[in-house]
Amino acid sequence: MTPLVTTTGQSYEEIWIGFEKMSHVGFEGETINLKVTKTGSGPATVRYATGKQPLWNGQPAMGEPSERYRATPGLDYTQVSGTLEFGSDDTEMTISINLLNDADSAESYDVWERFYVNLSIDPIGGGSWDDPDSFSDDDLHWQHGDAVQPRLRSPHYFATVSIRNRR
Model confidence over 102-127: pLDDT tens digits? Predict the structure, then answer.
């Protein structure tokens, strides 16, 4: 059972969204599927995007990998971004990413290259997590009107994808 949040005298089921696994490994030439899960009832929208480092509310969550181990979009993987729309009863959705065959022989020594897939949720009531002055405390209540504010499940708000070559 998902915990309840109480606000304005009423209780609501929390909605948590995150990657099922934080670390994924795939081979060049394959498509890798990353499962995003939702607990709690009610609809939720989450955005996703590939990147060179993990982000939390638009800010770097940790340092990026060294140049030798950093995957390059368009060369090592197909860059993707989009929105997942969870219905009230949906509990999981999948993000698919093509891992490309790296034809650059100079990189043939690289056994692993990494990139990240980040999740983000806009706060209900407008505003931006990147600019805390753009919304009031009232907008941050977990229940806003008839909607419950979904939250990202820490630390599953990003996933690491490691690409392994077949050499």
Answer: 765 455 554 688 899 999 886 655 55
How far apart, in whole angstroms, are the C-alpha atoms of residue 88 and residue 160? 28
Around Cβ 124, how many Cβ atoms within 10 Å? 18
Task: List the one residue out of 57, 39, 15, 46 whose CA is nearest residue 148.
Answer: 15
3-class secondary structure, 67: helix
First and final C-alpha spacing in the chain = 47
Q: Which structure tokens are listed for 6?
A: 């109480």
What six digits make up the tokens of 93? 């959705």
Report the SS3 class of residue 23.
strand
**CA 102 to CA 108: how far, in whole Å?**
8
